[in-house]
Specification:
Structural class: mainly alpha
Number of helices: 6
Strand content: under 5%
Largest sheet: none
Length: 177
Amino acid sequence: MEYIVDYLAYLILFLDITILAYLGAKLLQKFFSTPIDSYVERFEQVIDARYREIGLLTALVATVGSLFLSNILGWAPCKLCWFQRIFMYPLVLIFGVSLFFDDRNVSDYVVPMTVIGGGISIYHYFIQVISTIQTTCSSSGVSCSTKYTFYFDYITIPIMALTAFTIIFILGYRNWR
């Protein structure tokens, strides 16, 4: 079953490259008129038209993925993993309800949750990669520095969460009232 984690790592790598390409193109647009402007505009039209569906799918994959890692593979989550889950799991409900009631104004709820959850992910990642920061989240719990995965020399579980938070943040921020 661990091959599913391999697929998740490749998905995260693809999404991280996509995020960096999008942000790089937006940065170039600020200073230069480039041939890729039309592609960026079409990409933005697609994500703006379907941001709630994309957000729901992203949050759902992150939620199911975290449950798979802990309940199927038996990888015990640490305290910081739980805090990240606290900010990711409700996003499934928020996006689902917004789609059911056709409410496009969910950015007020989504953006703060992604900023806080993403901040926790960044902190958790630094604990994992900087060996001088050693911590146990509780006396009987899993250490926050435990790395169950380390794909492509950077992808750990907090990076997976950070990628999902970043995608949802970009979607929410672009559609903020």
